[in-house]
Specification:
The complex is a heterodimer of chains A (334) and B (280). Chain A is an alpha/beta fold and 334 residues long. Chain A has 7 helices and 7 strands. Helix content of chain A is 62%, strand content 15%. In chain A, strands 1-4-3-2-6-5-7 form a 7-stranded mixed beta barrel. In chain A, a hairpin with a 2-residue loop joins strand 2 and strand 3. With 280 residues, chain B is mainly alpha-helical.
């Protein structure tokens, strides 16, 4: 009985101890027999990384953080054990980062060229490069820091939005509507001007057509004259023909002068139109870029307000002149 | 000769003085009793520790007590842990819905079972089973004068009766709790895979996420302290039993109640002194 008790107790105790130890080692992923390779990286700060956190290569779990220890020169050495079958990438660097929103961290071994384009990370990697048999490492900010930065940005945006709200009040909207109306009037005037010049062009074109018709008529007269010369060369009417020719030449000269004048007029009109279009283009550019009075009027509410205020004052002045002209105009005979 | 008007206020004054005095008396008596019990337990503990040197006396019965207190208690511990693990995994998934990744079920089951539920629930169950058993057994021996007979024969009752039980409790409670830890985590795992939309790999991921050897050490040391206090209180109440069968029953009841209270107090003590200290 006693022996069976001893055996039973011993067996149970041994079984529980062995099972519990085995389970603990399995859960901790303990490296029994040094079957894993060791990698050490150095950091200035390891954030919330802890012993037992996962080591990841290209998204695949490749091992665990075995130890985190302070080292000389203000460094923190993180020793990782990796599966022997795992190949490190070329020019490896180690990033410590959060793997989820719940405080889990992991060490990511990646290529230097695959680092995120972040100045802080690049600076950390550059600073930690050069240790003997130690990989350079950098720590990415945790969620709390990112949240703080996001909160700051949100505050700034809210601040800007508040200022815009203050600047763009009902009055500003009224002024903007007024400015748009003024701009519409301006564009109507421009359109009218273009239409007027189109009428001049029409007139010019019609004059040119008339001149060409006159020229045709002159050419026809010249042709008739040539026929008459041909028929009257034998009937003694040469003198009459010469006179007619002289008359025709004078007509031709006058017609030619008229065409030259019309051509010059056309050229001047074209130049004026070019100049007008150039000026119009310049005005529009200045309007767009906010230069000049009108541009400032459109883009700077203060100028508009000043102008509006000036007009108001002028209206007041005119009203006052009308109601009380003696105040401003004094007529003395003697 | 005194008249009635001069006596009445004196009586009223005495009655007014009696109430505070009575309250103070009750308070003092309670404090004295509490201190006596603490002193009694301390003396008992010292005598038990001194009796550990008498290996020849307690050695032969040690394995028997280990089997009775430990091996025979394993089904209870495993049974409790089995259902605790299942309920924990389901409760965790219910709480985590939509907000926390489901693999944290593994973390919660591991942490809760190893740090708290396996030691405390098993301890409370064994307080009922082992504490009452020891108190009843020793109480019966006391009221039937068997212990007097032992003393007459030159045996130290502490070495012969108490030490093997206390040592068995200290050594076997961690074994029972260790088995309960394994059963609880395993049942939580099976329940997570079978009843929840959680893969085995995810549960293991959560299990490993924040696992530390400290969790197991903490639970086992706590269990050992529970074993010590449950067997010690059972022995104290049993050896102090008097008044026949009624006294034995009272001793068994007291042993269970005091053991349960002491388990909870020790649980808080370890949490404050060790668990909190390990975080700093």
């Amino acid at each position: 009985m006693k022996r069976s008790n001893d055996f039973l107790v011993g067996m149970v105790v041994l079984a529980v101890i062995l099972t519990l130890t085995g389970a603990t080692l399995w859960v901790k992923q303990t490296d029994i027999g040094e079957r894993r390779s060791k990698v050490v990286a150095r950091f200035r700060d390891v954030g919330n990384a802890r012993v037992g956190n996962a080591v990841v290569i290209r998204g695949v779990r490749a091992g665990t953080i075995e130890a985190i220890e302070l080292a000389r020169g203000g460094w923190v050495h993180v020793r990782m054990n990796l599966d022997r079958s795992m190949q490190l990438p070329g020019t490896p660097v180690v990033l410590l980062n959060e793997s989820s929103l719940f405080g889990e961290w992991q060490a990511t071994i990646t290529q230097r060229s695959a680092l995120p384009h972040d100045e802080t990370v690049q600076a950390q990697i550059a600073e930690s490069t050069g240790g003997d048999d130690v990989l350079p490492g950098a720590t990415l900010p945790d969620i709390a820091k990112l949240t703080a930065v996001a909160g700051q940005i949100a505050g700034d945006v809210a601040n800007v939005a508040g200022r815009v709200e203050v600047a763009f009040d009902e009055r500003a909207a009224r002024e903007l509507r007024s400015s748009i109306r003024n701009f519409s009037d301006l564009s109507t005037t421009l359109s009218q001007t273009v239409r007027d010049h189109a009428g001049d062009l029409d007139t010019l074109s019609r004059g040119l057509q008339s001149a060409v018709s006159s020229l045709n008529r002159t050419a026809l007269s010249a042709s008739q004259l040539a026929a008459r010369v041909d028929s009257s060369s034998t009937s003694g009417e040469i003198k009459q023909i010469v006179d007619d020719m002289s008359h025709a030449a004078a007509e031709l000269r006058r017609g030619s002068a008229q065409i030259r004048m019309m051509s010059e007029q056309l050229s001047r009109t074209q130049n004026r139109l070019d100049s007008f279009l150039t000026n119009g283009d310049s005005v529009l550019v200045k309007l767009n870029t906010g230069q000049g009075s009108l541009g400032l009027l459109l883009n700077d509410p203060s100028l508009y307000r000043n102008s509006d205020s000036l007009l108001t004052q002028l209206r007041g002045l005119v009203t006052e002149v009308r109601t009380n002209p003696k105040k401003f105009v004094s007529v003395r005979i003697f | 000769m005194t008249n009635a008007s001069s006596v009445l206020p004196e009586v009223a004054l005495q009655g007014g003085r009696e109430l505070p005095l009575r309250v103070l008396s009750v308070l003092g008596r309670s404090t004295r009793h509490a201190l006596e019990r603490i002193g009694e337990l301390a003396r008992f503990t010292v005598r038990t520790v001194e009796a550990v040197r008498d290996v020849r006396t307690w050695g032969p019965s040690a394995t028997l007590q280990m089997r009775l207190l430990g091996v025979d208690s394993m089904p209870i511990g495993a049974f409790i842990a089995l259902f605790t693990g299942i309920v924990l995994s389901l409760l965790a998934s219910y709480s985590f819905t939509g907000a926390v990744p489901l693999y944290f079920v593994g973390t919660l089951v591991e942490k809760t079972i190893t740090l708290e539920l396996a030691p405390v629930l098993t301890g409370l169950a064994l307080a009922g089973r082992v504490g009452a058993n020891i108190a009843a057994e020793l109480g019966t021996m006391r009221v039937t004068e068997q212990i007097d007979a032992l003393e007459t024969l030159g045996y130290d009752p502490h070495a012969y009766l108490v030490v093997p039980r206390v040592l068995a409790g200290m050594l076997m409670f961690p074994v029972v709790v260790g088995a309960a830890m394994l059963a609880g985590v395993a049942s939580g795992w099976v329940a997570s895979v079978g009843l929840l939309d959680l893969s085995s790999g995810d549960f293991v991921k959560g299990l490993r996420l924040f696992f530390s050897g400290f969790d197991v050490r903490y639970g086992l040391v706590k269990a050992s302290s529970f074993g010590f206090i449950v067997t010690l209180i059972g022995s104290v109440r049993g050896l102090r039993a008097s008044g026949g069968a009624q006294g034995v029953g009272r001793a068994a009841t007291d042993a269970v109640v005091y053991s349960a209270v002491m388990i909870l107090m020790l649980d808080a003590f370890w949490a404050i002194t060790w668990l909190l200290g390990s975080q700093r």
